Task: inverse folding
């Protein structure tokens, strides 16, 4: 004969509560623990998005000259040289020294050198020494290329105290300018040589000159202009 066993109600209630409590604790711990990342979910370096490009620097504006500032002037280039037939050195710009030019014709002793005239030094001068009363001259080929001649005339400061000289500038046979000078004097002569072929620089001693003295006539720094 089967015998029924009865479990006391308080015992069932206690066991059920214990099971429910254990389940609650397990669920709470499961939710609180961190989730382990899946290796398949990791992003490879090749698939990673590129880093943002750095912002480009804004170029600074070029400095601007203040209004009214003039532009720099170009450097002028030298003018072409004169023809070698003139016997002179190369021309520079519109000004040409005659120093060193070879005469195409001449009479008497004349040469290039330095002199002191009325206390002023002239390094490029045409000299004629030992003046008596005879005329001496040197003639140059201008090739009709020049318009103006400037030259300072007088006697070298080592000349005789009573001597003098008469200077003439002659172009194609026509007198262009002249001056008579004594010791301690000097004068700048200017002559129009526009279109001239030949230029003659002539000098002779005055009547009071003593032949054989050290008197020297000076054509100081002769210069031609276009």
Result:
């Amino acid at each position: 004969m089967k015998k029924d066993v009865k479990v006391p109600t308080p015992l069932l209630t206690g066991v059920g509560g214990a099971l429910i409590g254990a389940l609650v604790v397990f669920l709470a711990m499961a939710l609180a623990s961190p989730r382990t990342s899946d290796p398949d979910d990791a992003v490879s370096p090749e698939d990673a998005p590129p880093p943002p490009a750095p912002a480009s620097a804004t170029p600074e504006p070029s400095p601007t000259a203040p209004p009214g500032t003039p532009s720099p002037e170009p450097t002028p280039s030298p003018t072409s040289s004169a023809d070698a037939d003139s016997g002179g050195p190369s021309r520079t710009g519109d000004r040409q020294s005659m120093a060193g030019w070879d005469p195409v014709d001449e009479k008497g002793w004349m040469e290039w050198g330095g002199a002191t005239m009325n206390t002023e030094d002239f390094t490029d001068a045409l000299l004629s020494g030992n003046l008596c009363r005879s005329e001496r001259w040197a003639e140059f080929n201008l090739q009709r290329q020049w318009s103006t001649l400037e030259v300072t005339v007088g006697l070298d400061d080592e000349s005789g105290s009573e001597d003098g000289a008469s200077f003439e500038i002659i172009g194609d046979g026509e007198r262009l300018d002249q001056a008579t000078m004594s010791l301690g004097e000097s004068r700048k002569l200017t002559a129009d040589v526009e279109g001239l072929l030949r230029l003659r620089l002539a000098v002779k001693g005055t009547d009071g000159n003593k032949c054989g003295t050290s008197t020297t006539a000076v054509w100081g720094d002769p210069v031609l202009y276009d």
Remarks:
- The helical segments are 9-32.
